[in-house]
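Appendix B, record 7
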Amino acid sequence: MRHENIVFHRVLKHLPFDELERLVAAHGADDRERGFNTKSHLVTLLYAQLSGTTGLRAIADGLKSCSNRLYHLGVTAPSKSTFAEANRQRERGEVFGEFLGLMLKRAGRAARRALDGATYLIDATAVTLNARSADWARFSATACGAKLHVVYDPDADRPIYSAITAGNVNDITAAKAMPIVPGATYAFDLGYYDYTWWAELDQQSCRLVTRLKRNTRLERAEERSVPRDGNIVGVRIGFLPARQARNRKNPFQKPVREIEVRLDTGKHIRIVTNDLEAPAEEIAEIYKRRWAIELFFRWVKQTLQITKFLGTSQTAVRAQIAVALIAFLLLRLAQATQSAITSPLAFARLVRIHLMQRRDLANLLGPPPARHKDPNQLVLV
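Structure tokens (predicted):
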């Protein structure tokens, strides 16, 4: 009888376990291992993400209930206490963060081989935490939280970079630590309003597309003609103010282009870019694509487990968010191996339903595989 792997195994085969072992050795993450190593820990967290299971005991019991199907994964199901202790280990959290970074780089390179050009969206989303995380995540008298900062590739439908910070870290602070891809287009909103950072992007031959604040007016601006019909109601070329604030000199001294756009709601917004040549409609469309990263954040929060956390420490929260993004990448990679299910949400739901069943990914919508009968089995009539 031909062996049929469970759906969980088929999804996990996209993980570069050899790289995981290298990171484990570099960080000494298994030096104090007592029967529950980093690989088993990662697989347990991925089981929680893909199955939608919450709570330490529920996750541990869920894996134990199907432990006979974990043999080919080479992992062991933990007890609740062992699982809780592992979530607090700083070395494991560092391994999962670096492992996510490695997978994001691989995904980005693969996407760029298939696509011409690069447009990246930058944004952050808040993650609410409870008062038990106040020692590292308090940002007001009554609220605690973290931020997930992402650089997102809308063409490949996946992030290429992520960082997790406390909720009181400004978006622009996190953005300045992000790697810049020379020649790429970056679109972002008002949370990244910093002329010095814009100048750095321009020096790397990047095209930037963002909004102008209401009180920002271009200096020495020259009007350009625009068609009477359409959503582009004004185009002008000029220079950003000499100072962004009272004591901050603006290093961005090149001309920029302001494009005033009328939205379908009737509201007007002013977009600024350092690209003086591309059609105004193209620049407006790039800024409009920012909606894709909002949809990504919504998808991750609704489908994966980054609203209920298994621990309250910074290590535990960072590790769980990192593994959630790894789960997102795995779902995208696994979905690409079949063509029967085109909706990412439907595919994720079907994986959740059939996670521990022996099925082919291309047959998640079909009936379960027929069970072969033993010819020597005695059948009573």
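Remarks on this record: Residues 7-94+310-363 form one domain. The longest strand covers residues 119-129.
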